[in-house]
Each structure stands twice: as structure tokens, then as C-alpha cells.
Prior knowledge:
The protein is α+β, with helices and mostly antiparallel strands. The protein has a single domain (6-78), classed as 3-Layer(aba) Sandwich (Glutaredoxin), CATH 3.40.30.10. Helices cover 37% and strands 16% of the residues. The chain has a four-stranded mixed β-sheet with strand order 2-1-3-4, with helices on both faces. Strand 1 (6-9), helix 1 (14-25) and strand 2 form a beta-alpha-beta unit. The protein is globular, with a radius of gyration of 12 Å. The chain starts with 5 loop residues before the first strand and ends with a helix. This is Glutaredoxin domain-containing protein.
Amino acid sequence: MAAKPILYGADWCKKTIAIQDYFKMHDVAYDYINVEQSDEGMQTIKDMNRGKVRFPMVVVGEQTPMKNPSPEELDAALAGNG
Length: 82
């Protein structure tokens, strides 16, 4: 099993909610950072996207951060193949 994923997103974002649902459905423990409530989280996603605010972003361990990953991309990342 890969490292505990970190989800950067916003509570109102449908794509963020879809990823949260994926994690719950697959019983995956994850950390959630609401970028609208965390200056550090907002800066982190800007750093990952060359200064642009783009989310949701998912980070799994040392793997490349994923912008709005598909369920298949999440499956691969969580299996350590991302």
C-alpha cells in the first residue's frame, strides 16, 4: 500500500467531492486540506501548478502530484504504480 494520500480541494468542488467519495468507497485513509481555509494549502497547489490555482490535487507519497485524477489514476497511485 502506498503512502497516505493528501487531497487538496474545496468543500464546494464537485470533483473534490468525487475523490472523497472514491476514498470512502475504497476505505482509503487520507488527509484533506481545504485550500480556501489554508494559506499553506493554497500555496502548495500554486507551487504544484506553476503559480495557478488548480484543484483538486492528490499527492501520494513521493509520486508526481495528480490534478483531478480519474479513478484509474487513483487505483494506480494507491497501488504504488503512479
